[in-house]
Amino acid sequence: MKLTSLIDKYSQLRLPIAKIEKHDNVTELYPPQAEAIKAGALDGKNLVLSVPTASGKTLVAELVALNHILSKRGKAVYIVPLRALASEKYEDFKTKYSDLCKIGISTGDFDSSGANLGNFDLLLLTIEKMDSLMRHQADWIKEISLVILDEIHLLDSVNRGPALEIVATQLKDLGAQILALSATIENSDELARWLNAKLVESSFRPIKLSRGVYLKGEIDFKEKEDYKLNNPSVKIDSSVLLATDIVNSKAQALVFANTRKGAESEAEKTAEHIYKILDTKEKKELFQISKKILSVLDSPTRQCQRLADCVKNGVAFHHAGLHSKQRHLIEKNFKENLIKVICATPTLAAGVNLPAKRVVIRDYKRFNTFGSEPIPVLEIHQMFGRAGRPKYDTEGEAVLIAKSDSEFNQLWDVYIEGRPEEITSKLGVEPILRMHILGIISQMQKTKNELYEFFEKTFYAFQYRDLSGLETIIDRILDQLFDWKFIDNSKDNRFKCTKLGLRVAQLYLDPLTAHTLIGLLNRESVDDLVLLTILSDTAEMRPLLSVRSSEELGIYEQFEKYDLEDEQIRAFKNAMIFFDWMDEKPDDFIFDRYNMPPGTMRSKLDIADWLLYSLAEIALILSREKLVPKVNLLRKRLKYGVKRELLPLIRIRDIGRVRARRLFNAGIKGIEDVRKAKPEVLEKLVGVKIAKKLIENLEIKSERAKIGLEKYSE
């Protein structure tokens, strides 16, 4: 089906189609895309589109959203599981459609009412942000008439599935059109019935996918002739051989390992071989990129140095432990074909769009609570889906690695011939339900039976039918929330949020965490380290690093000085990391001492800031402001990673904690000292460029203050 053929019936799509043709070079719809149109996607029909990765789901969503908005039917929300995905789609949509409709994005700050978001026609939101906005009861939510649920198969995820299920259930009640985008799953028909939607299911891929298993120097492919590597060395790991082989043919590779450590070691081993293939121009450009990788942090860690060394050789590792700026540099330069191989953890398969000619799956097992277990077929197939670059490749290759004939047969039967598992609801877990029940009551008073009726509309109820077990859990949670004074019972037996309970729901906290915070507020006094330990012991901060044998002596020696429970030792370690950060210890020190990488560190700091903010907000509700000054001071110190004495300096633009310490040690302790300092002194302490910026900015502020336009305040 020609893309332009849609204009006859949907004339409002003339301009969007012209932009798609120009920006994406697309003129023809793929078969599943055409099927989605025929099924009524552009006519307001609910639809589940279940097709492999890179088969054009996003284009269908774009057409449906633009048709909806330009037909003036209402507001559209596009809900994705990850912030990185939201940002990627937002940038793409803004580039193409910013002159046709107002496009917005919101992925953080769960304590924002979102009133300003009502000005947008199309909103990119994470699952949790959508849930948070509904708790704040933004007026514009009633105007939503199209809901696009990306990666709907993540209903099966323990982490994100329950929030996605609650959000989808609530949005169904709005009567909005639902467009659910899914990977190929075994029970997509069940999912479609739950959403009262038509199902378009296909195995079509625009780029042919050849799947195979590697053993003893040869890849046995299902979809094409087998392939023998040229003189494979038994001394080189199979995964390295497979990556090097494809780079030799002027293509790229993604290698998936089951742990961060595995991805890093894999990259280092591969880098030795890829460097020999690079040309002189590529080596020079990669050297410059490696310098940027190192300059992201004031004090690069050993991990940063290892990454930079790999990048110099045309290889990178990629996982959540990296700083976000480093991940962005890797992704950008892989897309530009400078970095030839990325060795990553499986989370990359569900993240940003980074396809490669060959995908190598080094590990098909991973460790969990019960030991080593095979990775689900659905996840392996998600990794397969990254094989083949649109516009560049005519086919992609996805290769598993076997170490024996018996393992070869097992991998072939399970992952090549096997079907993905059915997805199942993960809603029936008490800690998860506790948070969402309070969230539901915060939006509208409910009787117990009305709560039961809401959960009867969920995917959990659709799958399991018998809700007696769930109702028992709901009853227990209601008793808990009542005991904690988060809900109250009105005269007509409706549960409603108390002022405290409403604030807890809006803060997007687990009620148990809020109950713990209230316990802190009831104390006469609390040591900073104990406070941060208790915050670190909440559900929001998990998972926590274990205490390594090399750390035990130092950590336990400090731990015994405080009145804490034995099971809080990991939380205490996390609090010690925060303290070292506030003591201005550099990233490399924290990484070496605690094995906490910079990316993980920033994530934990964000969570700590949110919990401290929530603690202060709850204190205001309960009129227990005694702890608030301490909390606000901790927030500032954690944000900047400084001792208290540097706070007046750290707020000055372009002054980070390293420069602030240099200035302070030179006797420059505040804004007035900076203003009075000689230019040559500032240049010596912070560099010529920064000194010039400081002088210019302070002169502007001083001039504005003189004419009464602005009063400077630290």
TrEMBL record:
Keywords: ATP-binding, DNA damage, DNA repair, DNA-binding, Helicase, Hydrolase, Isomerase, Nucleotide-binding. The keyword Isomerase applies. InterPro entries: DEAD/DEAH_box_helicase_dom, Hel308-like_dom4, Hel308_SKI2-like, Helicase_ATP-bd, Helicase_C-like, Helicase_Hel308, P-loop_NTPase, WH_DNA-bd_sf. GO terms for biological process: DNA repair. One of its GO terms (molecular function) is ATP binding. It is an enzyme of class 5 (isomerase). Signal peptide: none annotated. ATP binds at residue 33. It catalyses: Couples ATP hydrolysis with the unwinding of duplex DNA by translocating in the 3'-5' direction; ATP + H2O = ADP + phosphate + H(+). Residues 241-441 form the Helicase C-terminal domain. PANTHER family: ATP-DEPENDENT DNA HELICASE HEL308 (PTHR47961:SF10), DNA POLYMERASE THETA, PUTATIVE (AFU_ORTHOLOGUE AFUA_1G05260)-RELATED (PTHR47961). DNA-dependent ATPase and 3'-5' DNA helicase that may be involved in repair of stalled replication forks. This is ATP-dependent DNA helicase Hel308. It comes from Candidatus Naiadarchaeum limnaeum. The gene is hel308.
